[in-house]
Amino acid sequence: MIKSRVALIKCDTYDHSQAFNAIRAGLDLLGRLSTFVQPGEKIVIKPNVLIGTDPVKGVTTHPVVFQSEGELLLEAGVRVYYRDSPGFGLSEMSMRLSGIKKIADEIGCILVNFDSGREISYKNALLVKKFVIAHGVLDSDGLISFPRLKTHGFLRLPEQLKINLVASRVCLKVNIM
């Protein structure tokens, strides 16, 4: 069984400098950001934007968390893209309503294509042996997922666990919480 390294850093505010420092501290514990990405790589940030709503409601990845990770990646020389496939509404509208688009525009992240994809097979899977993965992910060097820690109503699993189950089946490069 492959063991994952996990870093937990307390951050009880969405103050930008504190969130930025907390994420950097977590990455440092995991071996620094350069352990996961290299300059020039195209990395997709996938915030969790279930629905376009005010981040105070706790339904979406907070824009400050998105901003902090985006800035760290840009500082590392990475080309940063972003997208999610919301459960409700259009992606672009949901990104705008959640505050993610405003931050992305300010720091220079580019919206990537999640509207179409390609079927990928994983023959050793126990149940689902095929997935459709978005072209925006397949055309990148890696994916960083920023879910909200919440319960998933259909699977009855924490959201991070649900995303890890999918990501591990297609061997995505990075999944940082």
3D structure, described in words:
The protein is of the alpha/beta class. It has one domain. It has helices at 16-29, 63-75, 91-98, 100-107, 135-138, 159-169, and strands at residues 42-47, 79-82, 110-111, 117-121, 130-134, 142-146. The chain has a four-stranded parallel beta sheet with strand order 3-2-1-6. Strand 4 and strand 5 (130-134) form a beta hairpin. It is globular, with a radius of gyration of 16 Å. Mean pLDDT is 81; it is low at 157-177.
State the low-pLDDT regions, or none: 157-177
**Quick one: how many beta strands?**
6
The domain count comes to 1
Distance between the termini: 21 Å
Q: What would you report as the Rg, rounded to the nearest angstrom?
A: 16 Å
Question: What does the average pLDDT come to?
Answer: 81
Number of helices, counting only DSSP H or I runs of 4 residues or more: 6
- Which class do the helix and strand fractions yield? alpha/beta
SS strand fraction: 15-25%
Shape: globular
Largest sheet: 4 strands, parallel
Largest beta sheet: strand ordering? 3-2-1-6
Element-level helix/strand string: HEHEHHEEEHEH
What is the helix content?
Answer: 25-40%
